[in-house]
Design goal:
The complex is a heterodimer of chains A (about 550) and B (about 500).
Chain A: H1 2-32, H2 37-42, H3 45-59, H4 63-76, H5 83-96, H6 100-114, H7 119-134, H8 138-151, H9 156-171, H10 175-188, H11 196-213, H12 216-224, H13 229-249, H14 254-270, H15 279-298, H16 302-316, H17 320-332, H18 336-343, H19 349-362, H20 366-379, H21 384-397, H22 401-414, H23 419-432, H24 436-444, H25 451-462, H26 466-479, H27 484-497, H28 501-514, H29 519-531, E1 541-542
Helix pairs in contact in A: 1-9, 1-11, 3-4, 4-5, 5-6, 5-7, 6-7, 7-8, 7-9, 8-9, 9-10, 10-11, 11-12, 11-13, 13-14, 13-15, 14-15, 15-16, 17-18, 18-19, 19-20, 20-21, 21-22, 22-23, 23-24, 24-25, 25-26, 26-27, 27-28, 28-29
Chain B: H1 2-7, H2 10-33, H3 40-59, H4 65-89, H5 93-133, H6 136-140, H7 151-154, H8 173-198, E1 212-213, E2 267-268, E3 286-288, H9 304-315, E4 324-326, H10 328-332, E5 342-347, H11 355-366, E6 371-376, H12 380-393, E7 400-401, H13 407-410, E8 419-420, E9 430-434, E10 437-443, H14 447-451, H15 460-491
Parallel strand pairs in B: 3-4, 3-5, 5-6, 6-10
Antiparallel strand pairs in B: 1-2, 7-9, 9-10
The chains are: A mainly alpha (about 550), B alpha/beta (about 500).
Amino acid sequence: MIYRKKWLLISMLAMVLVLTMEFQVLYAQTKLTEMSLDRWAKMREVERYQMNIAEKYYKDKKFDVAMSEFEKYLSLYEASDAASFAQLKWSLCLNQLRKQNTAIKEGFQSVIDYWPESADAAKASYLIGKTYVAIGRVPDGKKAYQNTIIDYPKDAVAVYSLAGLAEIAIREKDEASLVKIWKQMTFDIPRTPLIRSTCATAANSLAVYYFNKGVFASGLKSLQTNYKDDQLSYYVYYYSRTPIGSLVGTDETQSMGYKVADQAVGFLRENIEKDVSTEPLKAKAIGQWSQMIELQKYSRRDKEILAAYRSMLGVFGNRDDLLSSIADYHVTQKRFEQSRTIYRQFKDKVAGLSKVAQSFRSELKPDEAVVVYKQLAGIDAENGATWRGAEAATYRQFQKYPQAIQGYQALVKTDVTNFQQWIWALATTQHEANQFKEAIGTYRQCENFPENYKQMAACHRALKQHKEALILYGQIVNGHEGLAPWAQLQIAYTYEAMTSRELAIKAFQSCCKKYPKASYASTAHAHLQNKYKISVTLGGATDE
Amino acid sequence: MLETWRNINRRTRWTAVAVTFVWFATVFDWVWGGLIPDPTLLFATAATAMAIRMRVEYRRRHENIIRFWFAFTVSIPVFWQAGIYFSDWLEFDELRGYIARGGLATFFITGLIWVVWGVERISQRLEAERRHAFNLQATLRHESPVKTKDKKSQAKIWNPLDPQAWYYGQKAPRLNQSLSSFVSYCVTFFLVCIILSQFRGCTQYYDLPAGGGVTETVQRVVKVQKIIRKKFILNPYSAIYYNAPEIDEVKLELSEVTAHQYNIGDGEGEGAGFAGGTNKGSVGFFRLEYAGGDWNQDFGIGGDMNMLIKYTELTGQNVAKQSKAVTPSQLKAFDKVRCPPLLYITGQKNISLGNNDIKILREYIFDKHGMIFGDNGGSRHFHNQFLAMMQRIAGDVKPVRIPADDDIHMKPYQIPKVPIVAPHGGVESLGWFKDGRWICYYHPGDIGDAWANGHAGVSAEIWNSSYRLGANIINYAHVGHSRWRIAQQKSNGED
């Protein structure tokens, strides 16, 4: 059971890293699917012209047109140096048009068969594997990747294929192969510009794997292949924190987690900036201290965390940012009083009090928070509107709507610069307080169409003023393309509330017919069948 | 009761035994066996005989009321099962459900009445015997009871039918006896029900239709219509009359039809079908009956039956008379080789399947070479439910978007774009590919609705394409299964 949990965790983390790797391979692949400048230079003007036309359509994602243009290139300039590239791109167009089987058999394979010596043959070989995996034919993909590695061992595609094999190993839960591949990519393969990022991601994945296994030294060794000095410290923190958190989270691996945390913190402490004579160096040191404390937080050891904070204060003194960090930590531990004591020690009294008020709100003490906000409005008169707004928000948070509305109404009158902000807050508060008529009037003054129309319609429906709601939904249908399917569905629901069965049915059918690919069409279709027992829902579409 | 039995003359007695035996055999065969091709006549005979007997018993009920109620009790399962059979035969699915539930409830209540009556009668008899043995005079004379050497009379009473049994206690023994009888009956009844529902019965067989053919993309039928317009070479409105001869004797419409000249199927047999099939075989359409959701959307005539009818039109293969629903345990009852190649799953709510059901489905896919055809009948929730179910069945296989040029989208009919009725689970059809074949095809947009009467009001292009896609999937599963059956036969050394 524990083993399964651990494996699941490792798989999930590895998946995240592999996804990153996938993006990097994709990025590299965009380079794979581009032709080198040398080759462009070797082309004749007419060839370049035709290729450019095809490439333009490809970039515009008009793949069917691009495909015919590449085909045209092939029939016109079969002997050209870029013919293999045109064939490769033709296959990629097929891939985009979801004709992957044809792309493999008639596209990529043709590149290998007809232009075996070209640079594109290696790319095609790799892309065969990638395409097979994408269409679910994993064993074929695996075989294709292996062939690529054997046939083109010195090409970048061999490394991409290794990354592909690692992905398959994760799917198949083949831990031994996975680690073997990662090790190979981390330590054995020389890093060239094209493959650097792919190998670096493999090294990071291996490091995470080792941290999860509790072997800090090996993880560090993997990261050392990618980073040095300050960067290394940061990435030790970055990649060890999640494994520490998950190891500590389970009773069986808790001690292992503490061990890794101690080793990681020890490593960070060794490399911490000791010279704090200048502001930049001080900022750097504070960052490193914060990372160290973050790691302690992941290990969930309160004593060590507070001790680390104390040491930090010893080095840097009572800075507001440090005090804020400590007090915030106390808030996470629900030690509100302690946190407020620290907030009150801020040199910046306004910032400190603001935090105090926030802490009262977190502790569900609205009256105390309001007192502090009033105090703040007195101290910081320049930002009085902000504090009065915060006061009103506090009332709203605790459902004291009359006071909140009063507060917002005052702000609407006094703070003209932020009129839209306060009028929206007032409208939504009135809406929440079920003052629908007042809310409609206030929403009318807002300028954030279609959101204000949506809310106004909702208020009208709550007041059973269905006709008004229908008008507003109709305006959304005509005025906002993105929300039109939603508004059409709402029209149907409104007719339903009016007990206009026929019109409701027509509106639901209209939703299916006008927006057949929107999720609202699905809702309308199901509603027609379930509620009205109507099978003729209209609609119907095809995939892209 | 025995007395009642003895009162019946010997001939009638044995006739009743024979009829009961035949009736039981028919029910078992219908539910689990399938040896009798059409048990309609047997059910009709049994039900009619029972009705006649009941009429006789009703007239003679004054002679022996117990006998009448006994006959009534016996008639319940007969009419119940016959009702289920005939409503199934007439395809009144809803009525069948009501009869099944109503019959079960009636059977339960009747049994309970008999239990209460029986226990009461026996306990009264025991009480009477005890009263008879009781020496009232001796008690009135305050004589101490004679100590008997018979240990039996002093021993604890264990008989549950006796209210004086020690475990019923002293306070309210009759109440305790009634309660325990009721609980025992209920527990026994439900246990029997559970056991019977789990009972798979005999192995079932699914045969493919015999024949042969190839599965290639059917060329579209091209109709060339040549319309020759009449050209006037003379002015028809001229004041001068010309006797214009007919110069154009060419037919006004010409049509050239290029139709496919081969059978759809697999193998070298005659007629459209499969080399791994038999003459009795036909292409069926099975759907999974599961708990938790509306598995029966567009089921039967006017629903998925339309697809079967269209399938025979599109492929020329024999199809079953009706589509069927199977529970996981019924699916398990199918033979390891001769089982349905395709299982359709639809709905819009939850898919509640236990671990055992999942195991059966996994066996069906991986050991029996089956294939699942999922169809989202109405919600994003079902989409998630289906994906979660597939994760449990085939966790190591990830779903992928099925290519447009895959065989399943190309043969026998080319489906350039997947037709969608409503995008409940998006617009992309997903597939699970394992061991060189699609083990599952998931349609996200209610293809079943496009097959049903009215076609959900979608355009003819969409519903036609939906039928073709359905035909492709059914044919794909059957071709794969036919080849696998032949391979199995060869590996088993059979002919």
